[in-house]
């Protein structure tokens, strides 16, 4: 049996610890001519799968994961369901296991499903060129499929090809203007990808809520757009609406905590975050708790933030999280600790965090098992060793680590593979007051990261390019999306604007 569904993979497998905070991309809907067929022998399995896809589209990946597992119970040969278990996976092991099962059950499925499976397999080899080639093939074979166009857009977005991604999403809108997901992805595109346009983001998010006003998670996306437009009170109202629609939505409370952090209501923010932790599923609890720790950074108290994060890291194995899922939140927490320690020159603390982090990253790479995964994890470990050396003033060692990082990634078929190298070389030159060189490198780093963007501003400032520096500091100060790096530099950026 083949059924035509609108559905899209999440493609968020590059770092499993980020699955909890990145937007989920998906697409599900009615049977339409031109859509990619979904193949199963069981009507029951298909019904559960469709419900799971609807849930995944809305970013509720833990609930979706459980539904896809029910689908394969009904049909153990359901390749697409295994693919979507991988897409909503909570650990490296779960992703790898279910991609193996999807690959093993490709006989008799549609060509589109085969392409989607092959696309996901490129995450194990970090081959973004192959991924793009496959997505274009999907669009060529199914030009009337919204799913195909949104899949292509997701891959273009990951490659920093924002204008191409937006064109793909607008094509998806043309195919069915009544479906909310292309508008949602356009809203995220204008929110987070350069060139940004916050007014357009708000317009698309408002359209999403108009199309699906009953869904709490979409009010959260609208709140995010209000945040970007400096409408913090409206953002809080949108998050409150989400909590009214679903009083157990921990993310709504998490986002309210962000707003109160930015407004300086730190005790209220911590209460919001605690409510978010209370309603979170076990796997989400340590991640939500990280944001509660960031309130101390916004307050200017780095030591309390590190202490709070250490308590989280020490308690992960007592939170009811299955052992194979524990490394993701551990790495996330240790990365945040290390970032704070490096920023404040707490070198002993940074070394301790990075040593633990490297151990867990290598364990993850062993689970994935591919040479590419192991090599990429080593490249990331070396990058952070270089950042530590640069902060300590050991510029020779930092430069050596930068070259080692680049060498390890040399064979990757990924146009963004050297962003970490340029970040490290930017910091290395900034610390040596070689500002023009620092600017040159930072402009090739990941400037969607506000912490890195802020350091580009420092390089401009050091070079006496005050107009460019102030523009950067203004962008950082008004970004309003929480992360450890943003929490570290937001106050500094605001002060530089005064």
Key features of this structure:
498 residues; mainly alpha; disordered N terminus; 1% strand; globular; Serine Threonine Protein Phosphatase 5, Tetratricopeptide repeat; 70% helix; two-stranded antiparallel sheet; single chain
What would you say this structure looks like, in words?
With about 500 residues, the chain is mainly alpha-helical. The protein has a domain at about 1-170: Serine Threonine Protein Phosphatase 5, Tetratricopeptide repeat, CATH 1.25.40. About 70% of the residues lie in helices and about 0% in strands. The protein has 25 helices and 2 strands. α9 (about 180-190) packs antiparallel against α10. The longest helix is centred in the C-terminal third of the chain and has 22 residues, at about 345-370.
Order of H and E elements: EEHHHHHHHHHHHHHHHHHHHHHHHHH
Radius of gyration: 22 Å
Roughly what is the average pLDDT, rounded to an integer? 92
In terms of structural class, how would the helical and strand content be classed?
A: mainly alpha
Question: Any chance you could write out the topology, listing elements then pairs?
Answer:
Elements: E1 2-4, E2 37-39, H1 43-57, H2 61-74, H3 79-87, H4 92-104, H5 111-121, H6 128-141, H7 146-158, H8 162-175, H9 181-192, H10 198-211, H11 216-228, H12 232-245, H13 250-262, H14 266-279, H15 285-298, H16 302-315, H17 327-343, H18 347-368, H19 371-392, H20 395-409, H21 419-431, H22 435-442, H23 450-462, H24 466-477, H25 484-497
Antiparallel strand pairs: 1-2
Helix pairs in contact: 1-2, 2-3, 3-4, 3-5, 4-18, 5-6, 6-7, 7-8, 8-9, 9-10, 9-11, 10-11, 11-12, 11-13, 12-13, 13-14, 13-15, 14-15, 15-16, 15-25, 16-17, 17-18, 18-19, 19-20, 19-21, 20-21, 21-22, 21-23, 22-23, 23-24, 23-25, 24-25
């Amino acid at each position: 049996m083949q059924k035509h569904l609108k559905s899209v993979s999440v493609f968020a497998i590059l770092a499993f610890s980020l699955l909890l905070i990145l937007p989920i991309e998906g697409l599900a809907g009615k049977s339409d001519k031109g859509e990619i067929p979904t193949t199963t022998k069981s009507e029951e399995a298909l019904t559960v799968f469709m419900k799971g896809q609807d849930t995944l589209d809305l970013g509720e990946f833990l609930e979706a994961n459980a539904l896809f597992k029910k689908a394969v119970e009904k049909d153990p040969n359901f390749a697409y369901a295994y693919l979507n278990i991988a897409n909503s996976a909570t650990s490296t092991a779960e992703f790898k296991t279910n991609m193996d099962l999807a690959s093993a059950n490709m006989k008799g499925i549609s060509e589109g499903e085969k392409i989607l499976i092959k696309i996901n397999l490129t995450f194990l080899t970090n081959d973004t060129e192959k991924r793009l080639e496959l997505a274009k093939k999907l669009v060529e074979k199914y030009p009337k499929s919204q799913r195909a166009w949104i899949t292509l857009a997701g891959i273009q977005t990951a490659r920093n090809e924002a204008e191409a991604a937006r064109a793909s999403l607008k094509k998806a809108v043309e195919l069915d203007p009544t479906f909310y997901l292309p508008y949602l992805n356009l809203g995220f595109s204008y929110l987070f990808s350069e060139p940004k346009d916050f007014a357009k983001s708000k317009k698309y998010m408002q359209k999403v809520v108009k199309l699906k006003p009953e869904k709490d998670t979409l009010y959260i996306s609208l709140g995010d757009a209000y945040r970007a437009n400096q409408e913090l009170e409206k953002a809080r109202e949108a998050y409150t609406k989400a909590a009214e629609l679903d009083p157990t939505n921990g993310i709504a409370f998490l986002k309210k905590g962000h707003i109160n952090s930015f407004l300086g209501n730190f005790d209220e923010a911590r209460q919001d975050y605690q409510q978010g932790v209370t309603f979170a599923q076990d796997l989400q609890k340590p991640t939500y708790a990280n944001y509660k720790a960031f309130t101390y950074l916004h307050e200017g108290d780095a030591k309390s933030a590190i202490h709070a994060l250490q308590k989280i890291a020490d308690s992960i194995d007592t939170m009811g999280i299955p052992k194979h899922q524990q490394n993701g939140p551990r790495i996330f927490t240790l990365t945040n600790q290390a970032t704070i320690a490096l920023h404040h020159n707490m070198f002993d603390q940074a070394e301790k965090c990075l040593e633990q982090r490297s151990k867990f990253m290598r364990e993850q790479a062993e689970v994935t098992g591919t040479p590419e995964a192991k090599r990429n994890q080593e490249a990331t470990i070396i990058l952070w060793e270089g950042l530590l050396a640069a902060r300590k003033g050991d510029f020779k060692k930092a430069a050596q680590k930068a070259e080692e990082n680049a060498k390890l990634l040399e064979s990757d078929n990924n146009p963004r593979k050297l962003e970490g190298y340029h970040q490290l070389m930017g910091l290395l030159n900034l610390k040596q007051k070689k500002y023009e060189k620092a600017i040159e490198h930072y402009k090739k780093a990941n400037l969607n990261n506000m912490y890195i963007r802020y350091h580009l501003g420092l390089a401009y400032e050091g070079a006496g390019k005050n107009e460019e520096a102030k523009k950067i500091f203004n962008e950082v100060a008004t970004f309003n999306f929480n992360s450890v790096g943003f929490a570290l530099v937001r106050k500094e950026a605001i002060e530089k604007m005064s």
